[in-house]
Protein backbone atom coordinates (compact mmCIF):
# COMPACT_ATOMS: atom_id res chain seq x y z
CA UNK A 1 0.00 0.00 0.00
CA UNK A 2 2.85 2.39 0.88
CA UNK A 3 4.07 2.48 -2.72
CA UNK A 4 0.65 3.46 -4.08
CA UNK A 5 0.18 6.66 -2.06
CA UNK A 6 0.82 9.77 -4.11
CA UNK A 7 0.79 13.08 -2.25
CA UNK A 8 -0.76 15.86 -4.34
CA UNK A 9 1.96 18.14 -5.70
CA UNK A 10 0.12 21.16 -4.29
CA UNK A 11 0.74 19.83 -0.78
CA UNK A 12 4.43 19.07 -1.14
CA UNK A 13 7.17 21.26 0.33
CA UNK A 14 9.13 23.36 -2.13
CA UNK A 15 12.21 21.53 -0.85
CA UNK A 16 11.84 18.07 0.67
CA UNK A 17 15.15 17.84 2.56
CA UNK A 18 14.75 17.60 6.34
CA UNK A 19 17.89 15.72 7.30
CA UNK A 20 19.50 16.05 10.72
CA UNK A 21 22.90 15.99 9.06
CA UNK A 22 23.92 16.06 6.33
CA UNK A 23 21.31 18.77 6.01
CA UNK A 24 19.87 20.92 3.27
CA UNK A 25 22.38 22.84 1.16
CA UNK A 26 20.95 26.00 -0.39
CA UNK A 27 21.10 26.38 -4.16
CA UNK A 28 23.06 29.61 -3.68
CA UNK A 29 25.83 27.57 -2.06
CA UNK A 30 25.94 25.33 -5.12
CA UNK A 31 26.13 28.45 -7.30
CA UNK A 32 29.08 29.57 -5.17
CA UNK A 33 30.83 26.33 -6.09
CA UNK A 34 30.23 27.06 -9.75
CA UNK A 35 31.57 30.59 -9.34
CA UNK A 36 34.71 29.24 -7.70
CA UNK A 37 35.25 26.43 -10.19
CA UNK A 38 38.22 28.08 -11.90
CA UNK A 39 39.58 30.21 -9.09
CA UNK A 40 39.26 28.02 -5.98
CA UNK A 41 38.39 24.40 -6.71
CA UNK A 42 41.45 22.37 -7.54
CA UNK A 43 43.88 25.01 -6.23
CA UNK A 44 46.33 24.99 -3.33
CA UNK A 45 44.86 25.59 0.10
CA UNK A 46 48.06 27.36 1.14
CA UNK A 47 47.78 30.12 -1.46
CA UNK A 48 46.06 33.46 -1.04
CA UNK A 49 42.65 32.75 -2.66
CA UNK A 50 41.77 29.78 -0.41
CA UNK A 51 43.38 31.36 2.64
CA UNK A 52 41.23 34.46 2.06
CA UNK A 53 38.22 32.12 2.02
CA UNK A 54 39.26 30.63 5.37
CA UNK A 55 39.87 34.11 6.77
CA UNK A 56 36.32 35.09 5.79
CA UNK A 57 34.96 31.99 7.54
CA UNK A 58 36.91 32.68 10.72
CA UNK A 59 35.91 36.34 10.79
CA UNK A 60 32.28 35.56 9.97
CA UNK A 61 32.01 32.92 12.69
CA UNK A 62 33.65 35.22 15.22
CA UNK A 63 30.95 37.80 14.42
CA UNK A 64 28.16 35.22 14.45
CA UNK A 65 29.09 33.87 17.88
CA UNK A 66 29.96 37.30 19.30
CA UNK A 67 33.30 35.82 20.30
CA UNK A 68 34.71 37.55 23.41
CA UNK A 69 38.10 39.21 23.29
CA UNK A 70 40.87 36.64 23.17
CA UNK A 71 38.70 33.84 21.77
CA UNK A 72 39.87 32.37 18.47
CA UNK A 73 38.25 30.39 15.66
CA UNK A 74 40.25 27.27 14.78
CA UNK A 75 39.47 24.60 12.22
CA UNK A 76 40.84 21.34 10.93
CA UNK A 77 40.05 18.10 9.15
CA UNK A 78 38.17 15.12 10.55
CA UNK A 79 34.88 16.48 11.81
CA UNK A 80 33.67 16.63 15.41
CA UNK A 81 34.52 12.96 15.88
CA UNK A 82 38.17 13.82 15.32
CA UNK A 83 37.87 16.72 17.74
CA UNK A 84 36.82 14.30 20.51
CA UNK A 85 40.14 12.52 20.11
CA UNK A 86 41.94 15.85 19.78
CA UNK A 87 40.40 17.01 23.06
CA UNK A 88 41.51 13.78 24.74
CA UNK A 89 45.03 14.35 23.43
CA UNK A 90 45.32 18.10 23.88
CA UNK A 91 42.70 19.50 26.27
CA UNK A 92 41.98 16.99 29.05
CA UNK A 93 44.99 17.00 31.37
CA UNK A 94 44.15 14.02 33.57
CA UNK A 95 40.42 13.44 34.04
CA UNK A 96 37.11 14.80 32.72
CA UNK A 97 33.48 14.73 33.81
CA UNK A 98 30.80 14.11 31.19
CA UNK A 99 27.10 14.64 30.87
CA UNK A 100 25.79 11.81 28.68
CA UNK A 101 22.18 11.45 27.49
CA UNK A 102 22.29 9.95 24.03
CA UNK A 103 24.52 8.36 21.43
CA UNK A 104 26.64 11.37 20.57
CA UNK A 105 27.12 12.82 24.04
CA UNK A 106 28.31 9.36 25.13
CA UNK A 107 30.86 8.94 22.34
CA UNK A 108 33.21 11.61 23.65
CA UNK A 109 33.11 9.97 27.11
CA UNK A 110 33.97 6.63 25.51
CA UNK A 111 36.95 8.20 23.76
CA UNK A 112 38.22 9.54 27.06
CA UNK A 113 37.70 6.17 28.73
CA UNK A 114 39.84 4.45 26.10
CA UNK A 115 42.74 6.95 26.29
CA UNK A 116 45.55 5.17 28.17
CA UNK A 117 47.08 8.42 29.40
CA UNK A 118 43.87 9.67 31.10
CA UNK A 119 42.19 8.59 34.29
CA UNK A 120 38.76 7.01 33.96
CA UNK A 121 36.19 9.73 33.26
CA UNK A 122 33.29 10.54 35.57
CA UNK A 123 29.96 10.09 33.83
CA UNK A 124 26.65 11.65 34.75
CA UNK A 125 24.17 9.61 32.72
CA UNK A 126 20.68 10.72 31.78
CA UNK A 127 17.88 8.84 30.07
CA UNK A 128 17.27 9.41 26.34
CA UNK A 129 14.76 12.22 25.95
CA UNK A 130 16.25 14.11 28.91
CA UNK A 131 19.60 15.75 29.57
CA UNK A 132 22.06 15.40 32.42
CA UNK A 133 24.77 17.97 33.01
CA UNK A 134 27.96 17.06 34.84
CA UNK A 135 28.14 18.22 38.44
CA UNK A 136 31.08 19.71 40.30
CA UNK A 137 33.57 16.89 40.71
CA UNK A 138 36.83 16.88 42.61
CA UNK A 139 40.00 16.15 40.65
CA UNK A 140 38.64 16.80 37.17
CA UNK A 141 40.06 19.41 34.82
CA UNK A 142 37.38 19.41 32.11
CA UNK A 143 33.58 19.32 31.97
CA UNK A 144 32.03 18.06 28.76
CA UNK A 145 28.55 17.69 27.28
CA UNK A 146 26.53 18.30 24.11
CA UNK A 147 24.50 21.44 23.53
CA UNK A 148 22.13 19.42 21.38
CA UNK A 149 21.83 15.63 21.40
CA UNK A 150 21.26 14.85 17.74
CA UNK A 151 20.04 11.32 18.38
CA UNK A 152 17.15 12.29 20.67
CA UNK A 153 16.27 15.90 19.94
CA UNK A 154 17.23 17.20 23.39
CA UNK A 155 18.77 20.64 23.93
CA UNK A 156 20.82 21.18 27.08
CA UNK A 157 21.84 24.44 28.75
CA UNK A 158 25.33 25.80 28.17
CA UNK A 159 26.69 27.29 31.39
CA UNK A 160 29.82 26.67 33.38
CA UNK A 161 29.58 24.23 36.27
CA UNK A 162 29.62 26.18 39.52
CA UNK A 163 33.12 26.13 40.97
CA UNK A 164 34.77 24.94 37.75
CA UNK A 165 36.69 28.17 37.16
CA UNK A 166 38.13 28.09 40.67
CA UNK A 167 39.44 24.56 40.10
CA UNK A 168 40.95 25.59 36.73
CA UNK A 169 38.65 23.21 34.83
CA UNK A 170 37.70 24.05 31.27
CA UNK A 171 34.29 23.56 29.63
CA UNK A 172 34.07 21.67 26.33
CA UNK A 173 30.73 21.77 24.51
CA UNK A 174 29.80 19.72 21.45
CA UNK A 175 27.77 22.14 19.36
CA UNK A 176 27.59 20.00 16.22
CA UNK A 177 23.81 20.05 15.71
CA UNK A 178 23.28 23.21 17.79
CA UNK A 179 25.75 25.72 16.39
CA UNK A 180 23.90 28.16 14.18
CA UNK A 181 20.49 26.89 15.30
CA UNK A 182 20.38 27.40 19.08
CA UNK A 183 21.34 30.48 21.10
CA UNK A 184 24.64 30.18 22.92
CA UNK A 185 26.89 32.39 25.02
CA UNK A 186 30.32 31.07 24.10
CA UNK A 187 31.87 32.91 27.06
CA UNK A 188 30.38 30.07 29.12
CA UNK A 189 32.63 27.64 27.23
CA UNK A 190 36.31 27.14 26.49
CA UNK A 191 35.81 25.05 23.37
CA UNK A 192 32.52 25.23 21.50
CA UNK A 193 33.13 22.86 18.60
CA UNK A 194 31.05 21.58 15.70
CA UNK A 195 31.00 20.24 12.17
CA UNK A 196 29.50 22.24 9.27
CA UNK A 197 27.04 19.68 7.88
CA UNK A 198 24.13 20.81 10.09
CA UNK A 199 23.08 24.46 10.46
CA UNK A 200 26.01 25.62 8.36
CA UNK A 201 24.72 23.62 5.41
CA UNK A 202 27.98 22.16 4.14
CA UNK A 203 29.58 18.76 3.74
CA UNK A 204 31.22 17.01 6.69
CA UNK A 205 34.87 16.22 7.30
CA UNK A 206 35.77 19.52 8.95
CA UNK A 207 35.75 20.59 12.59
CA UNK A 208 35.48 24.18 13.79
CA UNK A 209 36.03 25.35 17.35
CA UNK A 210 35.54 28.63 19.19
CA UNK A 211 38.42 28.53 21.67
CA UNK A 212 38.98 30.58 24.81
CA UNK A 213 42.42 31.77 25.96
CA UNK A 214 42.19 29.12 28.70
CA UNK A 215 41.70 26.35 26.12
CA UNK A 216 44.58 27.62 24.00
CA UNK A 217 46.82 27.73 27.08
CA UNK A 218 45.64 24.29 28.21
CA UNK A 219 46.51 22.73 24.84
CA UNK A 220 50.02 24.16 24.93
CA UNK A 221 50.50 22.93 28.49
CA UNK A 222 49.06 19.44 27.98
CA UNK A 223 50.99 18.73 24.80
CA UNK A 224 54.22 19.16 26.75
CA UNK A 225 53.08 17.45 29.94
CA UNK A 226 53.90 14.06 31.38
CA UNK A 227 51.50 11.11 31.22
CA UNK A 228 50.49 9.02 34.20
CA UNK A 229 53.66 6.91 33.91
CA UNK A 230 55.91 9.96 33.76
CA UNK A 231 56.66 9.91 30.03
CA UNK A 232 55.93 12.86 27.82
CA UNK A 233 52.50 12.65 26.27
CA UNK A 234 52.66 11.67 22.61
CA UNK A 235 50.26 13.77 20.56
CA UNK A 236 50.07 12.81 16.87
CA UNK A 237 50.34 15.91 14.66
CA UNK A 238 46.83 15.30 13.31
CA UNK A 239 45.45 15.50 16.88
CA UNK A 240 47.57 18.42 18.04
CA UNK A 241 45.32 21.35 18.85
CA UNK A 242 48.30 23.69 19.11
CA UNK A 243 49.29 22.75 15.56
CA UNK A 244 45.71 23.34 14.40
CA UNK A 245 45.69 26.75 16.11
CA UNK A 246 49.01 27.72 14.53
CA UNK A 247 47.69 26.80 11.09
CA UNK A 248 44.34 28.49 11.67
CA UNK A 249 46.13 31.73 12.51
CA UNK A 250 47.60 31.47 9.01
CA UNK A 251 44.07 30.87 7.63
CA UNK A 252 44.81 27.30 6.60
CA UNK A 253 44.52 23.73 7.85
CA UNK A 254 47.33 21.31 8.66
CA UNK A 255 46.18 18.82 6.03
CA UNK A 256 44.51 19.45 2.69
CA UNK A 257 40.83 20.32 3.25
CA UNK A 258 37.84 19.94 0.98
CA UNK A 259 37.84 23.33 -0.71
CA UNK A 260 34.25 22.74 -1.81
CA UNK A 261 33.20 22.47 1.84
CA UNK A 262 35.01 25.71 2.63
CA UNK A 263 33.24 27.50 -0.23
CA UNK A 264 29.79 26.33 0.88
CA UNK A 265 30.55 27.10 4.53
CA UNK A 266 31.75 30.62 3.74
CA UNK A 267 28.63 31.29 1.69
CA UNK A 268 26.38 30.03 4.50
CA UNK A 269 28.11 32.06 7.19
CA UNK A 270 27.74 35.23 5.11
CA UNK A 271 24.07 34.41 4.44
CA UNK A 272 23.36 33.95 8.14
CA UNK A 273 25.16 37.14 9.14
CA UNK A 274 23.59 39.17 6.33
CA UNK A 275 20.14 38.12 7.56
CA UNK A 276 20.75 39.06 11.19
CA UNK A 277 23.23 36.58 12.59
CA UNK A 278 22.53 34.36 15.56
CA UNK A 279 19.34 36.17 16.59
CA UNK A 280 17.79 35.70 13.15
CA UNK A 281 18.96 32.12 12.69
CA UNK A 282 17.81 30.89 16.10
CA UNK A 283 14.44 32.63 15.81
CA UNK A 284 13.88 31.00 12.41
CA UNK A 285 14.71 27.56 13.80
CA UNK A 286 12.47 28.13 16.82
CA UNK A 287 9.59 29.03 14.48
CA UNK A 288 10.04 25.87 12.43
CA UNK A 289 10.34 23.68 15.53
CA UNK A 290 7.19 25.18 17.09
CA UNK A 291 5.22 24.33 13.94
CA UNK A 292 6.06 20.65 14.42
CA UNK A 293 5.66 20.55 18.19
CA UNK A 294 2.30 22.35 18.02
CA UNK A 295 1.13 19.97 15.30
CA UNK A 296 2.18 16.93 17.35
CA UNK A 297 0.49 18.26 20.49
CA UNK A 298 -2.78 18.54 18.52
CA UNK A 299 -2.38 15.22 16.75
CA UNK A 300 -4.31 12.08 17.66
CA UNK A 301 -1.40 9.81 16.72
CA UNK A 302 1.78 11.85 17.27
CA UNK A 303 3.44 13.45 20.28
CA UNK A 304 6.80 15.07 21.06
CA UNK A 305 9.35 12.52 22.29
CA UNK A 306 10.95 15.01 24.71
CA UNK A 307 8.46 15.52 27.53
CA UNK A 308 9.98 18.69 28.98
CA UNK A 309 9.16 21.62 26.65
CA UNK A 310 12.25 23.48 27.88
CA UNK A 311 14.47 20.59 26.75
CA UNK A 312 12.96 20.26 23.28
CA UNK A 313 15.44 21.04 20.55
CA UNK A 314 14.85 23.78 17.99
CA UNK A 315 17.40 22.15 15.70
CA UNK A 316 16.38 18.48 15.56
CA UNK A 317 12.76 17.64 16.37
CA UNK A 318 11.80 14.11 17.43
CA UNK A 319 8.16 12.99 17.25
CA UNK A 320 6.88 9.62 18.48
CA UNK A 321 4.05 7.94 16.58
CA UNK A 322 1.45 5.60 18.07
CA UNK A 323 2.21 1.91 17.61
CA UNK A 324 -0.71 1.63 15.19
CA UNK A 325 1.16 3.94 12.80
CA UNK A 326 4.41 2.60 11.38
CA UNK A 327 7.03 5.33 11.23
CA UNK A 328 8.96 3.23 8.71
CA UNK A 329 5.98 3.16 6.38
CA UNK A 330 5.40 6.89 6.75
CA UNK A 331 9.05 7.61 6.05
CA UNK A 332 9.01 5.32 3.00
CA UNK A 333 5.97 7.03 1.51
CA UNK A 334 7.43 10.46 2.15
CA UNK A 335 10.65 9.44 0.42
CA UNK A 336 8.72 8.07 -2.57
CA UNK A 337 7.18 11.52 -2.83
CA UNK A 338 10.46 13.40 -2.61
CA UNK A 339 10.45 14.18 1.13
CA UNK A 340 13.65 12.69 2.53
CA UNK A 341 15.58 11.99 5.71
CA UNK A 342 12.75 12.02 8.24
CA UNK A 343 13.52 8.70 9.92
CA UNK A 344 14.33 8.41 13.62
CA UNK A 345 17.84 7.71 14.85
CA UNK A 346 18.41 4.02 14.17
CA UNK A 347 20.15 3.18 17.46
CA UNK A 348 17.38 4.77 19.52
CA UNK A 349 14.96 2.21 18.09
CA UNK A 350 11.73 4.15 18.52
CA UNK A 351 8.68 4.43 16.27
CA UNK A 352 9.66 7.97 15.53
CA UNK A 353 10.17 10.77 13.04
CA UNK A 354 13.27 12.96 13.35
CA UNK A 355 13.21 16.25 11.48
CA UNK A 356 16.04 18.73 11.01
CA UNK A 357 14.84 22.35 11.14
CA UNK A 358 18.12 24.15 10.56
CA UNK A 359 18.17 27.74 9.23
CA UNK A 360 18.26 26.70 5.56
CA UNK A 361 14.89 24.95 5.95
CA UNK A 362 11.93 27.17 5.14
CA UNK A 363 9.28 27.27 7.89
CA UNK A 364 6.62 27.04 5.17
CA UNK A 365 8.14 23.73 4.07
CA UNK A 366 7.96 22.48 7.66
CA UNK A 367 4.25 23.31 7.74
CA UNK A 368 3.80 21.48 4.43
CA UNK A 369 5.61 18.46 5.84
CA UNK A 370 3.17 18.12 8.74
CA UNK A 371 0.23 18.25 6.32
CA UNK A 372 1.87 15.57 4.19
CA UNK A 373 2.39 13.31 7.19
CA UNK A 374 -1.32 13.63 8.07
CA UNK A 375 -2.23 12.84 4.46
CA UNK A 376 -0.07 9.72 4.45
CA UNK A 377 -1.21 8.43 7.84
CA UNK A 378 -4.84 8.83 6.91
CA UNK A 379 -4.37 6.74 3.76
CA UNK A 380 -2.22 4.12 5.43
CA UNK A 381 -5.18 3.50 7.75
CA UNK A 382 -7.58 2.87 4.85
Can you offer a commentary on this structure?
- This protein has 382 residues and is of the alpha/beta class.
- The protein folds into 2 domains: 13-25 and 277-381; 27-273.
- Helix content is 35%, strand content 14%.
- It is built from 10 helices and 12 strands.
- A 7-stranded mixed beta sheet has the order 1-9-8-7-4-2-3, with helices on both faces.
- A hairpin with a 4-residue loop joins strand 5 and strand 6.
- Helix 2 packs parallel to helix 7 (259-274), helix 7 (259-274) packs across helix 8 (277-298) and helix 9 (327-336) crosses helix 10 (363-380).
- The protein is globular and about 70 Å long.
- One of its GO terms (molecular function) is L-serine-pyruvate transaminase activity.
Strand-helix topology:
Layout lengths: L26 H9 L12 H17 L7 E6 L1 H12 L5 E5 L2 H12 L7 E4 L16 E5 L1 E2 L4 E2 L14 E5 L16 E4 L11 E6 L1 H10 L18 H9 L9 H16 L2 H22 L3 E3 L11 E6 L5 H10 L15 E5 L6 H18 L2
Parallel strand pairs: 2-3, 2-4, 4-7, 7-8
Antiparallel strand pairs: 1-9, 5-6, 8-9, 10-11, 11-12
Helix pairs in contact: 1-7, 2-7, 3-4, 7-8, 8-10, 9-10
Amino acid sequence: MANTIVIPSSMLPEDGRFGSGPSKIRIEQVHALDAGAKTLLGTSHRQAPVRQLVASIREGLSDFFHAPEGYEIALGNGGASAFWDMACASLIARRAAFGTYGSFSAKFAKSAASAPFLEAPVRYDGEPGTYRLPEYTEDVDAYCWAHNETSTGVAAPVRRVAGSVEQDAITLIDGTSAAGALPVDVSQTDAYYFSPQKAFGSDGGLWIAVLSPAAIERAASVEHSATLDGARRWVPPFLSLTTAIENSRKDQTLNTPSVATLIMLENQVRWLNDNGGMDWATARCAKSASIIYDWAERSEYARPFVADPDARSHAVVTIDLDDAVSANQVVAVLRDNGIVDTSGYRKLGRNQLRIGVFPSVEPSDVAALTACVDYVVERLAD
